[in-house]
Specification:
Largest sheet: 16 strands, mixed
Distance between the termini: 85 Å
Number of strands: 36
Shape: elongated
Structural class: alpha+beta
Radius of gyration: 49 Å
Number of helices: 13
Helix content: 10-25%
Length: 678
């Protein structure tokens, strides 16, 4: 499986590796005879190989002249070679033998006896007639395939013959990987074998040697190969979201909910029901950061009021737990903690107001004996840790408690998968390894000096959230005017409007009794006047449901403005919430003053008997009305059949009952009430 590639690339430094195999070096030489292999299929000028030239034999045939006669007698004298009186018995001595000469030796040196032989001593010199030409020796291929040699040697090595693996040889293997643009289906298996060979070779290096390697090319190729062979689960389909059909604006964080725990045959995972956009990633074209809601009303310690959030996407690459293995695997004081602190304090990522609502929580996660099949040491956070990496316990309790659980695999915003670090230290053997989730969603332990991506988390102070709205279109309002827009249906993705306590905004209304469809005059002061600064208003019912929203003035510190009471608003009591707001658009955090609440008594819209236009003259027949008194002489028709009236609008009609007799101001009071018996 390709899943071993990145796993091996980091886990190999954790423990000693012993290779057991038989010696088949001669097989390797035979397989790679001539220097050819799948990675060097043809010789070229660089390898220096040449085949050489086979010569032709000499056609000269040897004659007697080509030989010299050599005489070397092989005969040894015996009793036949001496006189009869010679004594050959057991008592003969060397001194006796010297007294006798071999007078009768019958031996003759000739070719038959083997004493005369012929030795080749040919004096022929090669010429055109004999046709001889010498052979020309070829030159060997000097191409040394790091991939084949290391792979075969590592598979077949014994402690006595194992080939020495060096930083240079492993780096050469990494550098020999193809460019990401060249990784295709037709060479995917070959590239996979290269990556696996690198993993095997790297297992022979020490931690200090591994620190010297540049894995950037390895990581890029492995990520592309993973997508090519297996595809990458995108965040939208990794976990199915629950439907949200509530209003697009909610006071506080009322519409944001906890994830849903899902149990399957492997364990449990948590399907998110809400996301929040908060801050921007300055390292990714200021893209708004999307956060998964892990707990809607509690921080990561499970008791502190707050909202626990995890970045949905990888925010950065090239992040290490620590720069060197000798720095250990404690999160406090680590390079990972420094990265989180630096990212959180960067005002290009989070505004000062956003930084102010990131909640620091002190907690310690206990050691674990076998979570994700590994032992883990304890890890701690302090109140200064506003942004942090998850622990394995938090990962299990809020995302998923088994390898490849939905939500563990993470990508960047371009859907490129990557491995991301955790803050939990590995508790066995060495103190130079820590936890991480690889690009397949498996939890492993890796050297602290390995390079990973960052997927941080943070806690949000809920008391600082004025209200929340749908991330896209939640504050829809066509124009800055007196009209308010009805709040639509929201979604699972939200943005926040934070309280800005530095604003001193005031607002009041001319009266609190209004009729639907009419305008209310509002006077305000202390509003912001900079870019994206507005005076905004919302209408809420008695249950604090936000019904209407609109921006009614822009870049104006003080003044008077009209607010149109929606004509379809039913009679009843409502709250008009007026506030100074910096509205920054979809997916971005807004900032606002405290609400200035104005309680309104809204009367229902008058249903007219006639559809009349104000300012228009209409004629009425009053002849049958028996109107008493003297007819006005200026009327054009004294018979009262055609009496002119100019329509100017509606007025509040009222009656006075007996209880109002003699009470000063009773008529004025009655004109502002809906009680017909007043």
């Amino acid at each position: 499986m390709l899943s071993t590639l990145l796993i091996c690339s980091m886990v190999l430094t954790m423990m000693p590796t012993t290779v057991f195999a038989t010696n088949r070096k001669h097989v390797v030489i035979e397989e790679n005879a001539g220097g050819l292999c799948e990675h060097h299929p043809e010789h070229d000028d660089e390898c220096g190989y040449s085949e050489g030239i086979t010569g032709t034999a000499c056609s000269h045939e040897h004659t007697d002249d080509c030989y010299t006669e050599v005489i070397e007698c092989t005969h040894r004298h015996d009793e036949d070679c001496y006189p009869d009186e010679s004594i050959w018995d057991d008592e003969a001595t060397p001194s006796d033998a010297d007294r006798w000469e071999p007078e009768y030796c019958p031996h003759i040196c000739d070719e038959e006896s083997g004493c005369i032989t012929k030795k080749l001593n040919c004096q022929h010199e090669h010429d055109d007639e004999c046709g001889y030409s010498p052979s020309i020796e070829g030159t060997p291929c000097e191409f040394d395939c790091e991939i084949c040699d290391v792979e075969d040697d590592m598979k077949m090595a014994t402690p006595s013959n194992a080939k020495a693996v060096t930083v240079a040889s492993v780096q050469a293997m990494i550098d020999a990987l193809p460019d990401v643009e060249e990784v295709r289906k037709d060479n995917a298996e070959e590239v996979k074998a290269q990556l696996e060979a690198i993993d095997d070779a790297k297992a022979e290096l020490s931690d200090e040697e591994i620190d010297k390697l540049d894995f950037s090319r390895y990581m890029e190729v492995a990520a592309v190969l993973e997508q090519l062979l297996y595809g990458v689960a995108t965040q939208s389909n990794a976990v199915m979201l629950a439907d949200y059909d509530g209003p697009a604006i909610q006071l506080g964080t009322g519409g944001i909910s906890d994830p849903t725990e899902v149990e399957d045959g492997q364990g449990s995972y948590y399907a998110p029901n809400s996301y929040i956009y908060f801050g921007v990633n300055s390292g990714n074209s200021n893209t708004p950061i999307k956060w998964r809601v892990l707990d809607a009303d509690k921080a990561n310690d499970g008791t502190t009021s707050g909202m626990f959030l995890l970045s949905e996407y990888l925010l950065a690459s090239g992040v290490k737990f620590n720069n060197n293995t000798r720095d250990g695997n404690t999160y406090q004081g680590s390079a990972a903690q420094t990265w989180c602190s630096t990212f959180a304090s960067n005002t290009n990522n989070f505004s000062t107001a956003e930084q102010g609502v990131m909640l620091g929580v002190t907690k310690t996660d206990s050691a674990e004996s076998s979570l994700y099949d590994y032992p883990w040491g304890e890890s701690s956070l302090t109140a200064k840790d506003k942004l942090f990496f998850l622990s394995v316990r938090e990962l299990a309790d809020y995302v998923g408690n088994y390898d490849k659980a939905p939500g563990l695999l993470a990508t960047d915003t371009a859907q490129g998968a990557g491995a991301w670090g955790l803050r939990s230290p590995y508790a066995a053997i060495r103190d130079n390894s820590a936890g991480a989730v690889d690009l397949y969603g498996d939890v492993y332990v890796f050297s602290v000096s390995n390079v990973w991506a960052a997927r941080p988390a943070f806690n949000l102070n809920l008391n600082s959230v004025l209200f929340s709205s749908a991330a896209e279109g939640g504050k829809a309002d066509a124009a800055v005017d007196d009209n308010l827009t009805e709040v639509g249906t929201g979604s699972a993705e939200w943005k926040l409007t934070l309280k800005d306590t530095s604003r001193s905004f005031n607002a009041s209304a001319s009266n609190t009794l209004v009729r639907a469809g009419e305008n209310l005059t509002v006077t305000y002061s202390g509003a912001g006047t900079g870019e994206n600064e507005y005076v905004s208003a919302m209408i809420a019912d008695n249950s604090d449901n936000i019904l209407y929203y609109g921006r009614i003035a822009e870049k104006s510190e003080s003044g008077t403005v009209s607010v149109a009471i929606p004509s379809d608003l039913t009679a009843g009591t409502y709250t008009l919430k007026v506030f100074s707001e910096q509205y920054n658009g979809d997916y971005k955090t807004d900032y606002a003053s405290e609400f200035q609440d104005i309680t309104l008594t809204v009367k229902g819209k008058v249903s007219e008997q006639f559809n009349l236009t104000p300012g228009t003259t209409y004629w009425f027949d009053l002849s049958a009305m028996d109107i008493p008194g003297t007819v006005n002489d200026v009327l054009p028709d004294k018979t009262m059949h055609y009496v002119p009236f100019t329509y100017v609008g509606t007025v509040d009609a009222y009656v006075l009952n007996s209880s109002s007799s003699g009470v000063n101001g009773a008529a004025d009071a009655a004109s502002r009430t809906t009680d017909s018996s007043a």
